[in-house]
Amino acid sequence: MGFFNWLFGKRGDGTTAQSQPAVIPRISGPDKFAFEVMGESYYLKSFERLFGPRQARGIDEERTAHLVLDDANPHDNQAVRVEIEGHQVGHLSRADARQFRAAVIAGGLIQYRRFSCAAAIRGGWDNGDGDKGHYGVRLDLPTS
Question: Going edge to edge, which strands form the sheet with 87-91?
Answer without folding.
Answer: 35-36, 135-139, 114-123, 59-70, 79-84, 87-91
